[in-house]
Protein 1
Amino acid sequence: MSEIQNYTLNFGPQHPAAHGVLRLVLELDGEVIQRADPHVGLLHRGTEKLAESRIYNQSIGYMDRLDYVSMMCNEHAYCMTIEKLLEIEVPERAQYIRVMFDEITRILNHLMWLGTHALDVGAMTMFLYCFREREDLMDAYEAVSGARMHASYYRPGGVYRDLPDSMPQYKASQWHSQSEVKEQNKNRQGSLLDFLKDFTNRFETYVDEYETLLTNNRIWKQRTVDIGTVTAEEAKDLGLTGPMLRASGVAWDLRKMEPYEVYDKIDFDIPVGTNGDSYDRYVVRIEEMRQSNRIISQCIDWLQDNPGPVMHEDHKLTMPERMDMKEDMEGLIHHFKHFTEGYSVPEGEAYCGIEHPKGEFGTYIVSDGANKPYRLKIRAPGFAHLSAINFLVKGHMLADVVTVIGTLDIVFGEIDR
Amino acid sequence: MSQYYSELSDKVSAKLAEIEAIQATIAYRELTIEVSKENLTQVCQILRDDQELAFDTLIDVCGVDYSTYEGSALASTKGKTRYASVYHLLSVKNNHRIRVRTWLDDDFPMVDSVTGIWSGANWFEREAFDLLGILYSGHPDLRRILTDYGFIGHPLRKDFPLVGQVEMRYDANKQRVIYEPVTLEERVNIPRVIRDDNRYAERESEQKNGDQA
């Protein structure tokens, strides 16, 4: 009788279900996984090294490109760490704007996750549904920052500018007639906040639509229930955070436990799972979208009633208004210094973590008092999550690897940095 | 909050007194302790297992190369050593954090691995090994993780140039990808400067007075 040997399979790096550039070396016994060895780093761009050679504000743009489906949250962690070192307070309106855009980002991220995860598991429609809603939120990004994805909208000390009073409009073309465009522009007649208000009113029913397709779907349940189970103790030991930890029954959310910005003034709940399997993580993330929607609508209400500054007023640290630069000598000097030297951050070290859609995203900055960080370390949640994949897939079938990769919600921009 | 962390600092110092007299500092509402590399695993074991501390999650392991560090307030770091391994710990149970720093040798930076205490440390230590060349003894699988297969050098060391050492291209004659020394020149658009800023001088003197009191 011939000796039975394990079979080694190379999964990726160009596999559609690998969510980017994951090369996974799988050791199989028949169709059962014995060992999974992920090879990462194919998207390594040396963000941390680059940041050491650039002044603080120049690296904000790099932060967008880390986790490229939750752009503003990355910026948020970076800006908050700098603010901690500078010991400056952000104006309240800017805090509300940040919270609102963090939650928009969370919905963007979860929609992307839901669409691709469901597509991997075999539900095509979800992908189309999710991208329909992402479009509206991308437009919100565009309206506020000019860019649909890589916004670089947050700045240490606040946000780059106040919310716009008008929304960009669709224009008629040879594919879309005037009447069609009029219909498309119907909810874009007011300000950005009116547009988002309209979105939050609609979004709850959209989530219901997703749930009718998946939550009680027999195939979906067969593919996700009891796949990639992790207990609370194991999750903490493996360094899992965010929905990965909450699905295992730990009510841990930095927005509640270490409230930053104005999260302590906002009413929302933390969904918690019980079994810690892929299905629970799905349910937790779906509920998180509903909670994010609640947070956004509370922020809109506050922002509509409370105008005010959105940037810290010490222009040694933050950019002056454009008008000041043109008319005021001091403003011109500040502007010049910001673009030729930047600001120096006092010596010290700080770590700041935020509740990123994927987990705890943190940045650790060591400053020696210069205008560039001495060392910037980015703690990406996906990095810890992917490192747990060997634990999660061991003993499962080959087809379940795809489910587990999906449920981890990994994006290679942040893992490889 | 800082009240809480000064109490925590006392607690940690008391619990670790048997092993080592640790140096604890609180800055920006964060507690940092420094331990010697010989005692690191022992200290981490206590930090995790003690019920009052219960640091059950390892958030991050970060290697730092202090060789070109120009700051003055952290003068105590000068003349210490070049490398440090920094651990960020979180207690989900008690909702507090701590930073543990350990200084490593200049020419052969090596420290015991904490993978036996938190299995999540595995990849973080591989990353620090890859990017800074810090060796973690007892690590089950200390391979490079982020850089290319066959990469030479440790990119986050301060003596590693920003543009790198080699560049690669496809050679049509040899019909394969080849590596060559870089032809790029490193360009500095904005120089690195440290200003004597009076606003921070005030804060530093406050801190010093606070330390004495």
Protein 2
Amino acid sequence: MLRVLFVEDEPDVSLVAATVLEEAGYHVTVASDGREGLDIALQEQPELLVSDFMMPRLNGLEMIERLRSAGFERPIILTTAIPEDHLPGQPGYDAYLAKPYGTRELLALVEAFRLQMGLG
Amino acid sequence: MIEKFSTGIEGLDQLTDGGFLRGSAYIVQGPPGAGKTILANQFCYAHVRDGGRALYMTLLAESSSRMLNYVSQMGFFEGSALPDAMQYISGYGVLEREGLAGLLKLVQHELRRHRATAMVLDGTFVAQSVASENEFRAFIHALQGVAGIADAVLVMLTHQNRGSGCPEHTMVDGWIELSDETQGFRAFRTIQVRKHRGAAILQGKHRFRIAQSGIDVFPRVESAMDPQPPANAQSHRVKTGHRQIDALLQGGLPAGSATLVVGPTGSGKTTLGMQFLSQSTTQERGLMLGFYETPAHIRQKARSVGLDLDTPIDAETLDLQWLPPAENIVDEVVRDIVRRARARNVKRVFIDGLVAIRDSLVIRHRMPYVINALSMQLAAIGATVLYSSEIPELKLDETLMPSDELSAMVDNVVLLNTGRRDMAFRRYLSIIKLRDSDFDPRTHEFHIDSTGIAFGPDPRVAASGKTD
């Protein structure tokens, strides 16, 4: 079962997304800010990480930068209401999903990565 | 002197004597849908435009990306402010897991991390719901300290309708209340600055509107407008351009004065106003605000009675404005008239149809104070103003108009009356009041034909010789 770490500070978003992904057969862990996401990602090494950008304590891009520096090479999907061309710094993520998004869009993107990774 | 940050809303800056005080904490309270979120966002983006940095933290479970999606449609939204100078984050998870202590640490941490000079805490009532009254009081007190240390403005939004005795209201530096009110079928929004430490606030309720451009606040004109003496003491007369009327007025209307022209339907009020405006020149620019007739209709009407408004309009020395008599916000109407008159250095103003202004007021007894404030502002720029107001037809033997609180608020009163006599419709003009001047007290019959206002009975009536 593919393990997904979902990092999101808005509880309603993470609740809905986790439910949909779990129903689709994924194992989902939720972190509520970038710092928690960093700790869990380094410890559990999920196959896929989905992260919000604007979060307390550590934002999504800062978290991604630290993860990449620490050698985390798994794919990361960044979700944010900010247009991609307004995002600062080096991307570090593998896909961008504009907020607000539908659960079908999220699921389709996660499925695409699963297939790309050759995981059943 | 403590620096003030503009609220991003001109009218609210007026109510708060310049905006939010740096290093202070505010509560913005109001029911759902009252406009708290828009007000807070408008403040943040204005703050960022002024070079500040803002942080919007929500304690609500709902998604801030949906809110952002909605806010991005507003005129004040500035996409380039994201994500550097302006950020949205949620504090809900921390509050849920770590309580008020955790939330307080988070606020401190985020203010520092973001180097924010303004912060919004949306859904403060959620924080209250997880704590006792004492804990909540301590939390508010600590938040205020955090705002002070960070030298930032902290704006807390809540939908709870808690009274002035509640601890948060006594502790914070400012308290603003938004309301949705109804009167009959009519709905309107009000804003009230209930408290603002160290500032001369404009007290009481004021109307506001939410539009695509954001919130626009309209301070009550009678409270917002400083008493302003005329720029220069004026003793000259402003002619109506009608020889006999000017003679009755001892040479014309006193410059900078306010005149009320009252009379029943068809008595000639608009015609007299048009007569006054037909004298608009580069030196004495004119402005008309009408509610019932469009500018095209007014031009046509003037032509039909031999008055030339086309020349001053085409020369841009006369400006005709029209506002349908709907549910206008009178304070906005007055503000716009004064601004327009000031911008164009107008010296002749005609406002046709005070009934439309009166009907737009939620509290009708404000009317004389509103007109007084408007007249004062126009006098301050040296403008002479004529108001028309409709009253029922008076009996011919009545020599004075019925008492009207408006008459006391103006300098001059001209009564136009109508009546049927000898099988004919007739018009009468009387001067009732003229500022600091003697005047002809007699009532004069007049008629209006294709050459304008003419004194005496209509020749067609005299020719018919018919009597009742």
